[in-house]
Here is the input.
Amino acid sequence: MGFCYAIADKPLPQPIESMSQSQKLSRHYLALVGIVALGTVLRFWHLDLKPLWLDEVLTAFFILGRHYNDLPLDIVFSPSTLEQILTLQPEASCGEIARTLAAQSTHPPLFFCLMHSWLRFMGTDSLVWALRSLPAGFGVAGIVAVYCLNRLVFYPTAGLIAAALMAVSPFAVYLSQEARHYTLPMLLITLALLGLIEIQHRLYSQQQPHPTLWLFWVAVNSIGCYVHYFFILAVVAQVLTLVGLMLWHRQQLSRGSWIDVLLAIAAIAVSYLPQLSVLLGDFGRPETEWLPTPDSFEPLFQLLIGWLLMVIALPVENQPLWVAVPMGVLTIGFGGWVVWQGFRGIQQLWRKPSTQLATLTLSGFIVCVLLQFLAIIYLLDKDISVVPRYHFVYYPAICALLGASFALEKGKNWRTGEQRRWDVIVLLGASLLSTVFVVSNLVFIKPFHPQQVAQNMNLEPTAPLMIVVGYSDIQDVALGLSFALALDQGHGDSRLKNADTFFAFLNREQGYQPLWQKLSELQIAPVPRLNLWVVAPGLKRRDYPQQLAIASQQTCTLDPTQHYRIGIPYQLYRCYFRG
Here is the structure.
């Protein structure tokens, strides 16, 4: 683990002569290897079981080197066309991807460039697995990073428990199995917190932090802005925590400490300048308008649910009441126990001089991030609490604090060593069970349920099929693409190789009446019968026409038994050739 000590500018431990100590050290690192191996298995287990959902499709589109002009809009296209637009463009450069993102998306470019290079290396024969494998790898690296953090700022056992907690966390595994840019910034935030605490240790002991430590902290925080814009919240929280603790411990600071800190902060700010104009432009883009306005105290409740999901996630979504209610009660009860045990442990950590600084830093960081969340929710009217994945910004700090608090063996009138072991077993056992539910697609079900939609649409596998999606923006198109891709998963006959499968994305900005007219003018090969699914965002069930026409050859009649709504409605029409 020399990497951990190199970051902290500490010497490696000296050789241990005692056989018993040597055996303990061997068991320690053997346990770490086992934890990392378990975390790896959980992250790659069933990695391609769930189909890509809307956001993953959008991510894949830019990663592949594509842009909006490549989309086949307002025409009928076949599965072969779908395969073409989801084919890697190996000649696309990082600069081209960055320019496309700046014009057509609201994300910084670094993750997309890394993923593009990854796909060039891995190939796209199994596109879903290839897209999710690199984020899963970053998730595994995060386990090692949180071990380094807790080992160096607390003690070795705290490192093991924090690593184990992240390895089996349902939240961490869920993020690792998303073809999205969450695990990489989570890894960088963990490393940034390690650098921050080590810098403070040296500042308050009147040692000048080594230049490589400053460089490490600045570099990690600079890179993060180009991976995910929410990383800036982590940078602000670090700066506020650092400055606040420096003011508190100002008598312990050596001469020149403030200058070093201000130079480091200025270097991070300067590193953001190349992306600043793009970032400011992204604030006003329509893609950011999907977040709802906050509803009184509901965001606070949703934030609480997000915290619980970090340690326990039992099947509640789409479950009958007799399952959902007991699972919900168990989740809340277990979460209350974790909070109580963690709070008492943090109190003990705060009282110990050797762990007080790290505890205050991590706690201050979490509080500062949460205050920024509340400002976004209540001042900017963007309820980000509805998106559990955004908790990645401060999850490493919570994981580190929980790991350290559960590692404590004794406290006054508190936990004995045996009780500590059982507490850890219960905590990790519940998280591991929750993660099994996650990888089995029972928890953290993909938004808009593309797998279930595909199953409903494929109710008659041998019948010709057409899917029509009304779109007003790229999100609607990506949603339709996710349904189309899901049709190809779990079916041995492969819908996307069926010559009698058709797709069409029709503009609905002028309403649905012009869309029905466009539908009647489409040209498709005549077939005796056809199952037509119409995905119509914003349309009420009663507003679906009883009959539609396709290409002036097919008369389509609404099937009242096949109407569904998953945030957006989709309806089956049965069509017959009129000739």
